[in-house]
Specification:
The complex is a heterodimer of chains A (about 550) and B (about 280). Chain A is built from 18 helices and 21 strands. Chain A is of the alpha/beta class and about 550 residues long. Chain A folds into four domains: about 5-165, Pyruvate-ferredoxin oxidoreductase, PFOR, domain III (Pyruvate-ferredoxin Oxidoreductase, domain 3), CATH 3.40.920.10; about 185-360, Rossmann fold (3-Layer(aba) Sandwich); about 370-445, no CATH class; about 445-545, Rossmann fold, CATH 3.40.50. In chain A, the strands form three sheets. Chain A has an eight-stranded mixed beta sheet. In chain A, strands 9-8-10-11-13-12-19 form a seven-stranded mixed beta sheet, with helices on both faces. In chain A, β8 (about 200-205), α8 (about 210-225) and β9 form a beta-alpha-beta unit. The relative contact order of chain A is 0.10. With about 280 residues, chain B is α/β, with parallel strands linked by helices. Chain B has one domain (about 1-255): 3-Layer(aba) Sandwich (Rossmann fold), CATH 3.40.50.970. Chain B is built from nine helices and eight strands. Chain B has an eight-stranded mixed beta sheet with strand order 2-1-3-4-6-5-8-7, with helices on both faces. In chain B, β5, α6 and β6 form a beta-alpha-beta unit. The longest helix of chain B is centred in the N-terminal third of the chain and has 17 residues, at about 20-35. The chains are: A alpha/beta (about 550), B alpha/beta (about 280). The interface between A and B is large, with 66 and 53 residues. β15 (about 405) of chain A pairs parallel with β2 of chain B. The complex binds thiamine diphosphate and iron/sulfur cluster.
Chain lengths: ~550, ~280
């Protein structure tokens, strides 16, 4: 075998996530490319959740419905996956909780008792999986030591029991020609990108799906010499972040729609005061609390238009780990270059989905300084310049004063309601926007994969599934990576020779399709999914087949 | 530079209590500068309201933010650079209504800020409505028959929240007020001064204050019981009762910024750490 989809299902709160990631790391060590998708309810303990680990020789970024190997911790894990189980599916189940199933039943409770390895049920299952796929014992041992070394002895004991209880099946081959890549989720990727671009402070208030950004940053706060601040509300979050920016410290916030709603007023402040800020905005099912742990791409419009007034903003929507790193870095650098709000628009699928990350495949992300004041004469925070960008300087500055403000202001940052000045600073913002549009032409803001007269149009986390489905169908995929400013020219180029354009989105209105149409392009069909679940490869192929000419 | 004035035209009504605050702040900053304090280390914050305009009138670093939100900005500034001296000018609408949570949390954290509340007990810039500290006899355009709720005592709330310096001042008692503000700025930790700033246009309380403001000087400054007694002596609803002013409470406590380490700027070191992190994830 050169590819496999493993699913682990059971009660929430008992280590399914950790077990899934561990299995992913096992496969990664064998040279596989990994994609991990998780489906869990907003219930801390006792609900049903599953995690799907897919390994393939080539790069992947989407899940498949069909399960090759199922580890079932309870009855739900089987009964709720019926549609995705076939005769070929191998099932290893907890015979204490599941009866009369084909496959291998393991009495986890009694094994645990015999071995006195309480709480290690999932490790027994992982052992059985390893044997079924004929994995090398050394590999299992090595991965466990490296990634899950706490209470190692008992874990190894449990794994060994599982290993010994199962029989060898068709082996999952080592992919020796492939590099062993790190496996990270979208949140890690975004964090790494921000850090590479010089992030100093991450301010947040926990909210699915971007909490892992906070956790990642907090874990390495000391080592990296950054600040992680968790104040009383998202309003305080964004205001604090702007405080850091004012002091010349690169800051970002991480949130989801509900939290971002609270931040909106401050986005306008950032624009008027010309303070750089990055908002990591992880979409999830809405409106309101919706389904907190389920995915959506429903905030494209919201993020584009949030705040009163008119001003430029950068919005990028990464679709995998590499893009998470690369575009988050760009977002932070451009926020500082243009002194504007920049958004990393992501979603639950991307934030919590795990991908193999190949750093070598993207350009190096590093700190790119904004325009700094030359130290001559009297500093004016909002000095007029040719390109509309005023040089930055930060307090404390001897004999100089730095005045920032949310009011219409003169060059020194003093409030005014003078109509000429008011028009002048609106023009200044327009100039910045034009400059940003020109600048972004040198980036791959619209990407294409494959060839064909029919193309799938996508953004964000649907990149992986569209790429794979379009490959299977022999068509093209067009991914809009930068949402704002809208990459009109790049899209026109990508659309050359395309006769039928099929928009694929996780929302019910086709928000990207509407946007694209506003710029004069034609969208022929839409494939929309808005039940909180990400699209599987099989599902997309089937849906596209229905509309393809 | 002999003064700290800017060229911004002052937009307050003649007789507005904000003038008194402005002149005291200017005096204090100039004196501090003469005493060798680096004026560039001062950062002034404001939200939105008549009080907030003050930052336009002082030639010192400032960030004129949005209604109610100066305090979290100030906290971050202090974290970004603990050498700064951060002063927030907030209004009673701005600080006690719109942005109350921030005051409570900054007090809880003992963030090293000075908060001057221009407590004119009306929404001045919004042309005269009820605030959390308006007297019960106040009639506002939006509540012609009086408020349908009672005022709260913000200093009692600040005490409960953990403020490490709590005071009230009346700018017309100039020397007393100045000493309070000076102490507040010098205090290491969260200091809040409720300033009886009179809005001549929408809530002219000069006469009441001139008759009822008492200057207190408390000996046992860290005593919570005594402080609370003084703080509770006036509940903001009544007029024509004695109003204590002075420093009611002060204590030394670990400050917010002391929990944070200095930001590291070394990019090379960071990239090694990031490589290690990635290695640990493969
Ligand atoms: C979010 C928001 N809501 C409302 C306003 C309108 N507004 C401007 S100033 C103000 C009240 C000002 O009262 P206060 O904070 O007490 O300051 P003062 O003008 O009395 O000094 C209001 C409600 C605003 N600017 N922003
Ligand atoms: S309205 Fe009141 S607070 Fe505002 S400037 Fe006039 S007197 Fe001062």
């Amino acid at each position: 075998m050169n590819t496999v989809t493993v699913q682990i299902g059971g009660k929430t709160g008992y280590g399914i996530h950790e077990a899934g990631v561990l299995v992913g790391r096992l496969f990664a060590k064998m040279g596989y490319n990994i994609y991990i998708m998780e489906d869990y309810p907003s219930i801390i303990k006792g609900g049903y959740e599953f995690i799907k680990i897919r390994a393939a020789k080539e790069k992947i970024g989407a899940h498949k419905d069909h399960i090759d190997l199922l580890l079932a911790m309870n009855q739900d894990a089987i009964s709720r996956s019926k549609d995705n189980i076939s005769k070929e599916t191998k099932i290893i189940y907890n015979s204490d909780k599941v009866d009369n199933e084909e496959g291998l039943g393991l009495p986890l409770k009694s094994i645990i008792k015999e071995e006195s390895t309480s709480g290690k049920e999932l490790y027994i299952m992982i052992g059985a999986l390893a044997k079924t796929l004929d994995l090398q014992w050394d590999l299992v041992d090595e991965v466990l030591k490296k990634h899950d070394g706490k209470d190692l002895e008992n874990k190894l004991k449990a794994v060994k029991r599982g290993y010994e209880s199962a029989e060898k099946g068709e082996p999952l081959k080592n992919q020796e020609d492939n590099k062993v890549l790190p496996v990270i989720n979208g949140s890690h990727a975004i964090s790494i990108g921000l850090l590479k671009a010089g992030l100093n402070a991450l301010v947040g208030y926990p909210m699915t799906p971007t909490s892992p950004v906070l956790e990642f940053m907090a874990k390495y706060e000391k080592d990296l010499g950054i600040h992680v601040v968790l104040p009383e509300s998202e309003i305080a979050v964004i205001m604090m972040a702007l405080g850091y920016s004012y002091m010349g410290k690169r800051s970002a916030v991480a949130t989801s729609g509900g939290g971002f709603s609270l931040m909106v007023e401050a986005i306008g402040l950032a624009a008027q005061a010309e303070l750089p800020i990055v908002v990591v905005m992880g979409q999830r099912s809405g409106p309101s609390t919706g389904m907190p742990t389920y995915t959506a791409q429903t905030d494209l419009n919201f993020v584009q238009y949030a705040s009163q007034g008119e001003f430029p903003r950068l919005i990028v929507a990464p679709g995998d780990a590499e893009e998470g790193v690369y575009w988050s870095g760009i977002a932070l650098n451009k926020a500082w270059e243009y002194q504007i709000p920049a958004f990393v628009l992501t979603d639950k699928t991307h934030c919590l989905g795990y991908y193999s990350y190949d750093e070598k495949s993207i350009p190096k992300v590093k700190v790119e300084e904004g325009l700094l004041w030359d130290g001559k004469g009297t500093y004016k925070r909002y000095a007029k310049t040719e390109g509309g960008i005023s040089p930055l300087a930060f307090p404390p500055l001897k004999d100089q004063v730095v005045k920032a403000t949310g009011y219409v202001h003169d060059e020194a940052g003093i409030t005014t309601e003078n109509p000429d000045i008011a028009k002048g600073i609106a023009d200044k913002r327009s100039k910045k926007k034009l400059k940003l549009i020109e600048d972004m032409k040198s980036y791959e803001t619209v990407k294409t994969y494959g060839e064909g007269k029919t193309a799938l149009l996508c953004w964000g986390s649907n990149k992986g599934v569209c790429m794979e489905a379009s490959k299977l169908l022999g068509i093209k995929t067009i991914q809009v990576v930068m949402i704002s400013p809208f990459p009109k020219e790049a899209l026109a180029k990508a659309l050359e020779g395309v006769e039928q354009l099929i928009d694929v989105e996780c929302n019910s209105e086709g928000q990207l399709a509407i946007l694209v149409k506003q710029y004069g392009f034609k969208v022929d069909e839409t494939v929309l999914k808005y039940d909180g679940r990400s699209i599987s490869v099989e599902n997309l192929v089937e849906e596209v087949k229905k509309v393809i000419k | 530079m002999k003064d700290l004035k800017t060229y911004a035209p002052i937009e307050w009504c003649p007789g507005c209590g904000n003038f008194g605050i402005l002149s005291i702040i200017e005096e204090i900053l100039l004196e501090m500068k003469e005493n060798g304090e680096l004026i560039e280390n001062f950062i002034l914050l404001s939200g939105v309201g008549n009080h907030a305009k003050i930052v336009d009138y002082i030639h010192v670093n400032s960030f004129y933010t949005i209604h109610g939100r100066a305090v979290p900005v100030a906290e971050a500034i202090k974290l970004a650079n603990p050498d700064t001296k951060v002063i927030c000018f907030v209004g009673d609408g701005d600080g006690f209504a719109e942005g109350l949570s921030h005051l409570i949390f900054a007090a809880k954290r003992n963030a090293d800020l000075t908060i001057l509340v221009h407590d004119n007990r009306t929404y001045g810039l919004a042309t005269g409505q009820f605030t959390p500290t308006s007297q019960s006899s106040y009639r506002a355009s939006t509540m012609p028959e009086g408020a349908k709720e009672v005022s709260f005592n913000p200093l009692e709330l600040m005490m409960a929240s953990g403020a490490s310096f709590i005071a009230r001042g009346y700018p017309l008692k100039k020397e007393h007020f100045k000493s309070i503000v000076l102490e507040a700025i010098n205090h290491k930790g969260f200091s809040v001064v409720d300033v009886l700033q009179v809005c001549v246009t929408f809530n002219n309380l000069y006469e009441d204050y001139n008759n009822s403001v008492n200057e207190e000087s408390i000996k046992d400054i860290g005593n919570r019981e005594k402080a609370l007694k003084l703080i509770r002596a006036w509940n903001y609803s009544e007029t024509k009762v004695p109003i204590p002013t002075g420093i009611f409470y002060q204590e030394e406590r670990k400050r917010f910024e002391e929990f944070y380490s200095t930001l590291k700027e070394d990019g090379a070191e960071r990239s090694v750490i990031l490589d290690d992190i990635l290695e640990s994830l493969s």
